[in-house]
Every structure is written in C-alpha cells, then in structure tokens.
Write a structure and sequence with these properties.
With 252 residues, the protein is an alpha/beta fold. It has a single domain, classed as Alpha-Beta Barrel (TIM Barrel), CATH 3.20.20.150. The protein is built from 9 helices and 8 strands. The structure holds zinc ion.
C-alpha cells in the first residue's frame, strides 16, 4: 500500500511537490487551473523535482470538466482539454489518470446521463491510450453516483478502472463496503477522507461519521495499491491523519 497526497492547484506546484515529497510516497497530481494546469506548468522542472523526492505520479483531471454537458461542443472541448492533460501526464510518466463522473442537469434523466457519460468516456479511453495511459473513474457526490450507476458505467467500459473515493461513496446513506466488495476487481486507486454523510467535507479520518474500522478492514481484504489522503486541512492535521491511518492499516 502506498500513501499519497494531492497538490492544491491554486498554489505553487513546486512548493506543493516539496512538501508532498517530504512526507508521502506519491503525488496525486491535480492538473487544474490556475497554477497546475498543463498550459502553465514547467514539465521538465516538475520531472526533476519528482525524481529528487522519489515521488510517483497518479494523474487527476479537473472534476468539473463537462463530459456530460447536453451541449455537444462543450463535451468535445472537455475531451480535448482532458487529452492535453493526458499528454502532460504521459510526460510525467503517469500510468493511471482519474476522470470524474459528470451528469447533465436534472432536465435529463439518469439513463440519458449514463448514456452521455459512457459515450464521452469511450472517447476519453481512446484518447488516453494514445499516450499509454489507463483511465480511472471517480464517482461523485450526487445521489446518482450510487453503486448501481457506477457498476453500469464500469460494465459498459471494460477498459475503465474504478477509483473509489470513500468520502463520496459514503454520502446519502450509501454502503461503501459494497463498492469495495463488488468492484474490487476493477479498483485501481482510492481517495480517503471523512464526512458526516451529507456534505463532501474532506475531513481528516475519525472526525466524521464514516466507520473506518469496518471500511479499512474491507479495503485491506481486497486492495493493496495507491491511497490518497484527500484531506483538506492544515498540514499538521494531515500528518496526524496519515499517522492514524497507517496505524489502523497495520493493526486491523
Ligand atoms: Zn476524490
């Protein structure tokens, strides 16, 4: 198991790499505006810093790319932008990159939303393949991001991997252990953070209501890959959460 942390895309990417490199095994590279998008970053300098710290890269594209916009031109533009990120990730030697669930506005029903997503994801998978990149699907925070819909997306796209965000999968009374049990064959990456079941708060583990003992036990049964602490808190709290998580992973 490897533990990573994401850069804050609103902050200087080199400073972020330095801190992550000092404390974690890999960077979950949030390739987003305004300071970490492909069009402003210095790939050579980043590559050098990553090497210096021995940091691996897991790629992460912006969660708000409108892959399921009812407006075709926006969907196409979103795919083009993602593709430019894949190119940059390839240059940073990333093998796996996250794309996010995206749903059209509620004027369109769930079935239509699934169709739009699957159509865009199929094109994204093709684009990513050009750069030797494999895509992972991170489900979101809405009610439609339930087990049934996630399973349908993965079933329709056998080349797509599953990125389990434990915080997202715990919202709306969902059973996160069911996602682990049923989808572990496709599971390639995990985001870990806490909440109270209603809002996506990205809290340190143990602060919210997620039953971490149960979840970590279930996760350990099936998974031993990359785990990002997607906790948005002051740095000392992030390191406390890391220590707590490492202890739980060891002892459970
Ligand atoms: Zn996440």
């Amino acid at each position: 198991m490897k533990i990573g942390y994401p850069n804050n895309p609103r902050k200087d990417v080199m400073d972020e790499i330095k801190w992550i490199g000092e404390h974690f095994d890999f960077i979950d590279f949030f390739m987003e505006p305004d300071k970490a998008y492909y069009d402003v970053i210095d790939l050579n300098a980043i590559k050098k810093a990553l090497k210096e710290y021995g940091l691996d890269v897991v790629g992460h594209t912006a969660y708000y790319l409108p892959f399921s916009s009812p407006i075709k031109a926006l969907r196409e533009t979103a795919i083009k932008e993602a593709s430019k990120c894949f190119d940059a990730f390839h240059k940073l030697d990333a093998e796996y990159v996250t794309v996010h669930a995206n749903w059209p506005p509620p004027l369109f029903n769930a079935k239509e939303g699934l169709e739009m997503q699957i159509e865009s994801l199929a094109l994204l998978i093709e684009e990513a393949e050009k750069y030797g990149i494999k895509l992972m699907y991170e489900s979101g925070i809405g009610e439609l991001d339930n087990y049934t819909n996630v399973a349908k997306v993965l079933q329709a796209l056998p080349k797509l991997y599953f990125h389990l965000d434990i915080g997202h999968a715990s919202l709306h009374g969902r059973d996160v252990c069911k996602f682990i049990r049923k989808l572990h064959n496709r599971l390639k990456h995990v985001h870990l953070h806490d909440n109270f079941g209603k809002e996506d708060l990205h809290l340190p583990i143990g602060i919210g209501k997620i039953k971490w003992e149960e979840v970590i036990k279930e996760l350990k049964r099936y998974y031993n890959g990359t785990i990002t602490l997607e906790i948005f808190a002051p740095r000392d709290y992030i390191l406390l959460a890391k220590k707590k998580f490492e202890e739980m992973w060891k002892s459970l």
